[in-house]
Write a structure and sequence with these properties.
Elements (H helix, E strand, L loop, with lengths): L1 H24 L3 H13 L5 H18 L3 E7 L9 E2 H11 L3 E6 L7 H12 L3 E6 L6 H9 L5 E6 L13 E5 L3 E5 L5 H6 L2 E7 L1 H16 L3 E3 L1
Parallel strand pairs: 1-2, 3-4, 4-5
Antiparallel strand pairs: 1-8, 3-6, 5-9, 6-7, 7-8
Helix pairs in contact: 1-2, 1-3, 5-6
Length: about 230
């Protein structure tokens, strides 16, 4: 039974790699080598059965990695809106993070202090946290405790202002968790962003989109748009 389990895990890994490769390069040649491997290990299966196994694995992989989008809002409590609230989504995502948290903040107020405590605990548990802030000086009092816990698991970057354009800023409001779920919103990490204003955002369950966001932020770091504090 154990050998069968190992064999299945082996083929699932092969097929997952093939699907990823096909999605990037649109090259299906790798599937031919997998069919040969399947025939070798499952000699009693007909070619039709082999294709059924391959098709089932591809469908299961595609289902697991399918993308979805959901509207997330901030609104006064008196508004009867069925969409999930920004504050609830952020708290839930951060608390459930197991690998990494990437978060950008244009404006962070003391209303967000409780969440900063959660972020500190997550970093102490081995979750990699990367925080991008717009103007550290204006938010230093709020972020003071966070700065005290800087480590390889908790890194903070500040946007470097353009000397030729004083109005330019890090205005993006983004949260990426575990490199697979992203919240892109108009809401700041403040009272009005979380409760008082009318704000809208999209919660994306997509490894591809999460990867694109992470890669863009890394590229901006390489370009010295952000500097580590």
């Amino acid at each position: 039974m154990r050998n069968t389990s190992i064999k299945i895990d082996y083929f699932v890994g092969l097929i997952a790699d093939a699907v990823r490769d096909y999605s990037i390069r649109e090259n299906d040649e790798i599937f031919q080598s997998i069919i040969i491997e399947l025939k070798k290990h499952f000699e009693n299966c007909s070619e039709e059965e082999i294709m059924d196994i391959l098709s089932l694995c591809v469908k299961m992989y595609s289902l697991e990695h399918s993308e979805s989008a959901e509207l997330v809002i901030t609104s006064p409590d008196s508004f009867k809106v069925k969409s999930r609230k920004t504050k609830d989504v952020i708290y839930s995502l951060v608390k459930e993070a197991t690998r990494s948290i990437t978060i950008t903040g244009y404006s962070i107020s003391d209303f967000f202090t409780e969440m900063l405590d959660v972020i500190i605990r997550k970093s102490q548990q081995g979750v990699y946290v990367t925080l991008y802030v717009n103007d550290l000086e204006k938010q230093k009092l709020v972020l003071e405790r966070l700065l005290a816990y800087k480590s390889k698991f908790l890194r903070i970057y500040e946007y470097q202002k353009d000397s030729e354009d004083k109005m330019a800023a890090l205005h993006a409001k983004i949260l990426v968790v575990d490199k697979k779920v992203s919240l892109v919103s108009s809401a700041n990490l403040s009272y009005h962003g979380m409760q008082g204003n009318i704000e809208m955002g999209i919660l994306l369950k997509s490894e591809e989109k999460a990867k694109q966001i992470e890669e863009l932020l890394k590229e901006l770091k390489r370009m010295k748009v952000f500097s580590q504090i």
